[in-house]
Amino acid sequence: MKYLGIALSLIVLTGAGLMIKSLNAEVIADLSGSTHYHNGKFVNDAPTSPNSLSKTLKIMWRYITEKRVDTEPNLPLPMKYLTAGAIAEIPDQGIHLVKLGHSSFLMKVEGEYWLLDPVFSERASPVRFLGPKRFQDTPISLEDLPPIDRVLISHNHYDHLDKQTITLLKSKVANFYVPLGVEGDLQRFGIQAEKIHSFDWWQSRSFNNITIVFTPTQHFSGRGLGDANATLWGAWVIKTPAQSVYFSGDSGYFDGFKTIGDKYGPFDLTLIETGAYDKDWQDIHMTPEQSVQAHSDLQGKVMMPIHNGTFDLAFHAWYEPLDRVSHAAAEKGVSLTTPIVGEVVTVGSDYPESRWWTSLK
């Protein structure tokens, strides 16, 4: 059972899907028009190391043999629980965010309620009884969420696209915005096709004086055996007339951050992946130091490190990404905000700066 749990963790990390029947073997969208789609697969602009059975077995052997320290917290993590009433009191003007854990966010954008990569399940896994288990609950239940205007998905890995969450949300959400091919996943989850809007890199859409743009990252996709890179991955730019936010999804460091910054920056706030990095997958996840550089490339004003503090997905201590990104940001003169789960953050206002994790090591 222990090693089965490790294998399921590797599915989340590498998209290898060695033990799971493909959930996305057929892609519903017409992908032939995408310039990054070749021979049935999406590709990054720069070559990255392909996943393979031997690579996955090597990583599994490391999980079995290497001593890992403090990969999960020993004490309860701080959290501010949210009620439906508290969410309703968030002002309609501006952009407001609530970290739900890992890379999941509830947002209020000019009066609209949005979700980014919502994962409410106990585990980021294809099964409910094994795989990476969250360190703490979400600060609000799915049932207490208000009706959601828009859900934005960065890619279809289990720690970003959760079938159980999407299934329970389907009657509450008006629109889903997804990378090319991920509409196939959502339709299999029971989402009506007319609610789903798929995007290639650099495609945009405007509504109610808000613009979203789907931009490149250096990553990959897959949920099971046979569907590696059958769907696209990427990041989201969110712009109103007065403010802008960048949501990274997952990515290795690449020169695309500078391109995005030149095209759509500066950003008032960047939500940058900072966690689950390792030498064995360094081209598709960033180190904390690279995350700070990505923020600078994007011309960000304030950076929030995400993709940490919720699931054990790598070999480092659970608090290491936050320690390292804090040090790197201080060295580079980068403004960092590190809210606890459930804390409301208002873009352009006073940002939470508490280093809450330091007393929990």
Please give a handful of descriptors for the protein shown.
361 residues, alpha/beta, 7-stranded mixed beta sheet, 8 helices, 21% helix, 21% strand
H/E order of the elements?
Answer: HEEHHEEEEHEHEEEEEHEHEHEE
Strand order of the largest sheet: 8-7-6-5-4-3-16
Distance between the termini: 28 Å
- Estimated radius of gyration: 19 Å
* Unreliable stretches covering 5 or more consecutive residues: 16-28
- Based on CA inertia axes, which overall geometry fits? globular
Number of helices: 8
Average pLDDT figure? 92
Classification by helices and strands: alpha/beta
- Largest sheet at a glance? 7 strands, mixed
Helix content: 10-25%
Strand tally: 16
| Proportion of beta-strand residues | 15-25%
Report on the structure:
The chain has helices at 2-14, 53-65, 84-88, 163-169, 182-188, 256-264, 288-297, 320-332; strands at 37-38, 41-42, 95-101, 104-109, 112-116, 148-152, 173-179, 196-199, 204-207, 210-215, 235-239, 244-247, 267-273, 300-306, 335-336, 344-346. It is an alpha/beta fold and 361 residues long. The protein has a seven-stranded mixed β-sheet, with helices on one face. It has a seven-stranded mixed β-sheet with strand order 9-10-11-12-13-14-15, with helices on one face. A two-stranded antiparallel ribbon has the order 1-2. It starts with a helix and ends in a 15-residue tail after the last strand.
